[in-house]
Amino acid sequence: MTIEKNSINHKTINQLIASRKRIKLKNTAILTSDVNHILAKDITELYLKLNFCSNISWIDINNQEIKTSTLFTNILNISKSLLAIPFVKSNLNSILDRENKCSEKNSLPFHSDLKIIYLRTDHWFNLRSGGSVGHTSGVVNSMINKGVLTSLVSSSKLFNVNWLPHFKIISPNYSKTGNIPNLSELNYNQELISNNKKITDISFNTIYQRYSLGNIFGVFLRRVYKVPLILEFNGSEVWVSKNWSNSKVYFLNLLSKIELLNLNFADKIIVVSQVLKNTLIEKGITPEKILVNPNGVDCSIYKPNCGGDKIRQKLGVSTEYIIGFIGTFGKWHGAIVMAKAIRLYFENYPDSTTKFLLIGEGNDLAEVKDIIKKAGVEKSVIYTGRIDQSEGPSYLDACNVLLSPHIPNPDGTDFFGSPTKLFEYMAMGKTIIASNLNQIGEILEHNKTAILIEPNNETILAETIEKAIENPELYKKLGENARNEVLAKYTWDKHVEKIIAFLYA
């Protein structure tokens, strides 16, 4: 397969390799999130070399560029990763045994003068937008404002966070383990433990960890320093990897043990929905240590009239009615259903001047574009691509109606999410059309703060979009009600206040 481009996305390369297609590239840069953390870098480069590709480089969103390694280095690094597997597994099993035997089984008390160390150990790098960015920055900034956060440790630079001098980046080393999926997450535990003294040079009496796949560092710190652990658990990362990931999950048994260890030894667990709490109770977790705390929003940033006119001018849609969607186009976002609804809407109203503004990018975007293209309505759909989280409010402000078409879980289990876009939409004071799906239908009230519809139904979604377009004044009040509701209940400050109160309940 010949690709006549100066650049190509790493995900596209992976898809071509997975389909075993010939790839012919020359003078091409592969776009990736971070050139220092490229999963299966040497395997990818080796495949390209076997396809006689030449003059290939990697470039990330910070415009850092590196050349591909030599054939000898590729083979050497792949060999190192394979040889590292038994050592990483053995070391981690020893750590797990020690934590199970030596960690305090009873709940540890919380100090009245909180000094929190925040652990963000996700293997997502240079992430500038998405629900996790909004959640992390919202919680961290509120903790800073309340004077309870003394230090922060992250695997990568955090954006939209009030970064302080004593915040540290402990970056995982992918050179030895990066060619094997999930091996770097497991090995990162030892890297963090080895940096323990550097990480804990600032006094703390409470650990707050945003749980990430395969990480036990919070449990380790709890045992060593005998301070309580708050675990922010936004969903089973093992389940997510199995059901929503496009790649195979490795070391599943070990990852499952780590997840359960975190849940068992956390002194308090913060979940975003009642569905998640019920799931943890079924796993044997004590109900009393679980707090249901939905996501939130910063209403001083997400608000009406915050730059939408400039965005409309930039996009060349000054007067048109705009239906908007923002997201990372994950499986659960319902973007495919939305694309089918857009197709159906224009089949019913071919002369409509309505524009659809799709903000962001992700795994399902390619299929969305394909559906729109085959429907012949590309001129009515605007794709922004990836934008920074800080730009999100102004793009949402440019819209008249906002869509949240989430779909049920593929395995039939209840939808456990608490979409951050839901609260951002509410704060914008716009008309919202959303799936009546678990917490979404609990936070929003039909015909009071939003229009709730049956999930996974493009026909109903298309019909509801038309009703909103035809009756703008009728639904204007819904947006006003939604903003009042989010101001009263779902700001990040209220989110953190609820956590702090729960510690002493």
CATH superfamily of the largest domain: Glycogen Phosphorylase B
Q: How many helices?
A: 19
Low-pLDDT sequence parts:
none
Strand count, sense and barrel status of the largest sheet are: 7 strands, parallel
Number of strands: 17
Count of structural domains: 3
Could you name the CATH class of the largest domain? Alpha Beta
Helix content: 40-55%
Oligomer: single chain
Report the mean per-residue pLDDT as an integer. 91
Strand order of the largest sheet: 7-6-5-8-9-10-11
Sheet/helix structural class = alpha/beta
Summarize the structure.
The protein is of the alpha/beta class and 505 residues long. It has 19 helices and 17 strands.
What can you tell me about this protein's structure?
By secondary structure, this protein is α/β, with parallel strands linked by helices. The protein folds into three domains: 7-69, no CATH class; 98-292, Rossmann fold (3-Layer(aba) Sandwich), CATH 3.40.50; 308-489, Glycogen Phosphorylase B (Rossmann fold). The chain is 43% helix and 15% strand. The protein has helices at 10-18, 41-50, 71-102, 131-145, 183-194, 196-199, 217-225, 237-243, 252-265, 274-282, 308-315, 335-348, 365-375, 392-397, 420-428, 439-443, 458-470, 472-489, 492-503, and strands at 7-9, 26-31, 54-59, 65-67, 116-120, 149-154, 167-169, 206-210, 229-232, 268-271, 290-292, 322-326, 355-359, 381-385, 401-404, 431-435, 451-453. Strand 1, helix 1 (10-18) and strand 2 form a beta-alpha-beta unit. The radius of gyration is 24 Å and the shape is globular.
